[in-house]
Design a protein that fits this description.
Helix content is 29%, strand content 24%. The protein is α/β, with parallel strands linked by helices. The protein folds into two domains: 1-340, 3-Layer(aba) Sandwich (Rossmann fold), CATH 3.40.50.12780; 343-441, ANL, C-terminal domain (GMP Synthetase, Chain A, domain 3), CATH 3.30.300. A nine-stranded mixed beta sheet has the order 4-3-5-6-7-8-9-14-13, sandwiched between helices. The chain has a four-stranded antiparallel beta sheet with strand order 10-11-12-15. A four-stranded mixed beta sheet has the order 20-19-18-21. α9 links the parallel β6 (219-223) and β7 (242-249). The termini are far apart. The structure holds adenosine monophosphate (AMP) and zinc ion. Residues 103-104, 106, 152, 223-226, 245-250, 312, 314, 335, 338 line the site of adenosine monophosphate.
Length: 447
């Protein structure tokens, strides 16, 4: 239940579970340690960790005496999860499992996660807490425009929304005409989608002549894929709504791992459910406070599939200092991408997020773009395809040339290589209903 008792904070900061969300550091760490010990006990019942922990001297949770001892536990990778398929990470009898989910396979074969009834309750609590932290409440009508099914985003947000008491419309993604109809018929106030789908919705809205005033939208949760601050500002401006960054991954339940509060300055990682570390992906040593590195997570809130020190590959860093909302759980910077999505183009390292940052900040660019890398002879060739902005007409060739030049120059200043820029009409580039595919790397794999 939400805690709405009198608060010294401005009234807009509402807590779902004040005690947990504002716990002081010492209490939070004591909680983490006791949950970690329990999680270790569960993990020692799984075939995978029995073997993995055998050389470490850890025979029970009690062998971990402080959070510092965490480093005695080896990392777990996606590769390990695949090797453990299907039941290598299961720690309770199958008859006590009530649900499974799978990773959407962002980078390969899916991996499976099992939940007990208690696990589902705890997960739902974290999603409800996240939704509530954005200022939503039971009076909201929530259209969940994300994929249902094995992917955790649909059902995870669905249950969290119901827990908050919102009216949840399980629309799933796609079919924007139907989405608008639902928004109008039921007075939708809150949306959940990938940022790329939200941009697509906005383009379609203009195309179909849907008046913004005919909708009651006020907030949106956007996640499941990286996006820049400029993309957030663009969605906020075009749709006239508040957009909150939602981060999660199926290995750690799904949504509700880290979420922005109303301060919109970093994502609170719910530290009573997860232990977060940031490491240098090369040396595997912790980075200095505030530096960017790979996020490593240990789940503390799931018995059926305990996963310890999971290398997420996601790149982020801690934001030092407290948040104005009063929550004590640390904040992560916007995730810029994955350590494994870096492109090496003629020897230069380029992250797709660097390209997005440039193009989404330019008003000459519309709501969609695509990065293509090919081989031309022995060299790599980078092409950035962008849809043109609203105020650009495709028949004005002088203007088009000037726009193309401007985008190419601005990109070159940021990524140091000279891309080919292609301009496309609005709606010409492919739209994905789930996670957007922003990069087509057509180079032969063995080079
Ligand atoms: P899945 O397990 O299929 O849900 O995919 C999880 C992955 O999606 C994460 O490890 C991230 O790479 C990505 N992801 C999810 N949410 C975000 C977000 N808000 N920002 C950036 N990447 C995200
Ligand atoms: Zn906050």
């Amino acid at each position: 239940m939400p805690d709405t008792s009198s608060s010294p904070k401005p009234p807009s900061f509402q807590y779902w579970n004040r005690a947990m969300e504002t716990m002081n550091r010492a209490e939070l760490e004591a909680w983490q340690l006791s949950r970690l010990q329990k999680t270790l006990d569960y993990s020692l019942r799984t075939p995978f960790y029995k073997e993995r922990l055998s050389g470490t001297g850890i025979k029970s949770g009690n062998d971990i005496r402080s959070l510092d001892d965490l480093k005695k536990i080896p990392f777990t990778t996606k590769h390990d999860l695949r090797d453990g398929f299907p039941y290598g990470f299961l720690s309770i009898p199958l008859e006590d499992v009530v649900r499974l989910h799978a990773s959407s396979g962002t980078t390969g074969t899916p991996t499976t996660i099992y939940f007990s009834a208690e696990d589902i309750k705890r997960w739902t609590g974290f999603v409800a807490r996240s939704i509530f932290a954005t200022g939503c409440n039971k009076t909201d009508v929530f259209q969940n425009m994300i994929t249902y099914g094995l992917f955790t985003g649909g059902l995870g947000f669905h249950s969290g929304g119901e827990e908050v008491g919102m009216l949840v419309i399980p629309s799933g993604p796609g079919n924007t005409t139907r989405q608008f109809r639902l928004m109008q018929d039921f007075g939708t106030t809150v949306l959940h989608a990938t940022p790329s789908f939200l941009l697509h919705v906005e383009s379609k809205m203009r195309e179909e002549g849907i008046a913004r005033e005919s909708l009651r939208l006020r907030k949106a949760f956007a996640g499941a894929e990286p996006y820049s601050e400029d993309t957030r500002l663009r969605i906020e401006k075009l749709l006239n709504i508040d957009v909150y960054n939602s981060y999660g991954l199926s290995e750690m339940n799904g949504p509700g791992v880290a979420f922005e509060c109303q301060c919109k300055n970093g994502l609170h990682i719910w530290e009573d459910g997860y232990i977060a570390e940031i490491i240098n992906p090369e040396t595997l040593e912790p980075v200095r406070e505030g530096e960017t590195g790979e996020l490593v997570l240990t789940i503390l809130c799931r018995e059926a599939t305990p996963i310890l020190r999971y290398r997420t590959r996601d790149l982020t860093g801690f934001i030092p200092g407290p948040c104005a909302c009063g929550r004590t759980h640390r904040r992560l910077r916007r995730i810029t991408g994955r350590s494994d999505d870096m492109l090496i183009i003629n020897g230069v390292n380029v992250f797709p997020s660097q390209i997005e940052e440039v193009v989404m900040a330019m008003h000459q660019v519309g709501n969609n773009y695509l990065i293509v890398v090919e081989k031309e002879g022995s060299l790599d060739r980078l092409t950035v395809k962008v849809e043109v902005g609203q105020d650009i007409f495709m028949d004005d060739s002088r203007l088009l040339n000037a726009v193309r030049d401007k985008i190419a120059k601005t990109l070159q200043a940021s990524i140091t290589i000279n891309p080919r820029v292609e301009l496309h009409e609005k709606g010409a580039l492919p739209v994905s209903e789930g996670k957007a595919v922003r990069v087509e790397d057509k180079r032969p794999k063995d080079v």
